[in-house]
Specification:
The chain is an alpha+beta fold and 326 residues long. The chain is built from nine helices and 14 strands. Strands 3, 6, 11, 12 and 13 form a five-stranded mixed β-sheet that branches. A hairpin with a 2-residue loop joins strand 1 and strand 2. It is globular and about 75 Å long. The relative contact order is 0.21.
């Protein structure tokens, strides 16, 4: 098959297949790169195929005054959690003519135009990047549905996992990993965010950097409230305030994909796990032709997210009631 992209430009399907093969590793990484708006604040783990047990050890051991008879029989306990990466795939029918004309048509009019390899790589890169963009859009809200067809069905997102653990009484005020807050507005944002930080366990706040994941409106409300109440201070040199007043190690992380969330997570980045495989040949990215004028973009992946620990020393969930958007 040849596609007419403009005067003197014909690209056979074989060129797409060769480009997909040659740049397979780079193209498979494109979804990972497209997730970086969120995952730059998280910990990515690679080489995870289906599941990996994570978690932390708890227990105590101490020196005491010398004794020939004293023994410590308290066990060291591993509190396991499982990072699931779910196997997903896509078969996308696409018209290379339409994609090229829509996104790259102007390039062919400049100078001598693009070579076939550059054109095909741009088209495939765009499609691969869209896969990552759509995963990022549902990073918090996805709900695993084996019968589904979209990114939101592939895995359980961070907020979905939190809701399940809340319902299972593994996130409670008594355990110290939950705090109840009121709805955040531009009149109270500063006080509410301080309340969250003050409710956190001392060991959690002892990390050199703690992240507070929130929707964009919470960040904007905080900036408005800070400016209104503390704007006169000599050290308030800019409108945007990414750190909670009085807590220099607590950084606000506003994310577009956190809109309408029922949870704010106060957590070090090490505790937010994002799993991929990308090792070996389990994941594929190929191009095939089964219809005239239409190609098939075929890709597979492993992907999932999880909290490494729910202990109060590692995370605090702030919520109104576990269901109402903050």
């Amino acid at each position: 098959m040849a596609g007419a992209f403009g005067p003197g430009v014909n690209i056979p399907v074989e060129d797409y297949q060769k480009t997909a093969h040659k740049y397979r590793k780079d193209l498979l990484m494109m979804p990972v790169y497209s997730l970086r708006k969120s995952t730059q604040f998280m910990t990515e783990r690679f080489g995870i195929r289906y599941a990996e047990t994570v978690g932390e050890m708890s227990g105590d051991i101490q020196f005491g005054p010398y004794s020939e008879t004293r023994e410590d029989n308290n066990e060291v306990v591993i509190n396991p959690r499982t990072l699931h990466t779910y196997f997903g795939n896509v078969v996308k029918n696409f018209s290379p003519n339409k994609i090229y004309q829509s996104f790259f048509g102007s390039d062919i009019t400049k100078g001598e135009g693009l070579k076939n390899t550059e054109i095909t790589r741009k088209v495939l890169t765009y499609l691969a990047a869209q896969l990552g963009k759509n995963l990022n859009n549902v990073l918090w809200k996805a709900v695993r549905n084996g019968e589904g067809t979209e990114s939101k069905d592939l895995f359980d997102g961070f907020d979905t996992i939190a809701k399940k653990e809340l319902d299972a009484s593994k996130i409670t005020e008594a355990l110290g990993n939950k705090v109840v807050i009121e709805a955040i507005t531009k009149e109270n944002a500063n006080d509410v965010l301080k309340t969250i930080c003050r409710a956190a366990d001392d060991h959690l706040m002892d990390h050199s950097e703690v992240l507070l994941f929130c929707p964009n409106h919470v960040f904007q409300d905080y900036c408005d409230d800070y400016q209104a109440t503390l704007g006169h201070l000599p050290y308030n040199l800019e409108y945007k305030r990414y750190y909670v007043d009085g807590f220099d190690n607590v950084r606000l992380v506003p994310l577009a994909n956190k809109k309408d969330t029922p949870f704010l997570q106060l957590v070090p980045r090490k505790n937010m796990l994002v799993g991929h495989n990308l090792v070996g040949d389990d994941e594929q990215l190929i191009v095939e032709k089964h219809k005239a004028f239409v190609l098939q973009f075929i890709a597979t992946t492993f992907f999932g997210v999880e909290y490494e620990s729910l202990s109060k020393e590692r995370i605090l969930f702030a919520t109104i009631d576990g269901t109402t958007p903050i």
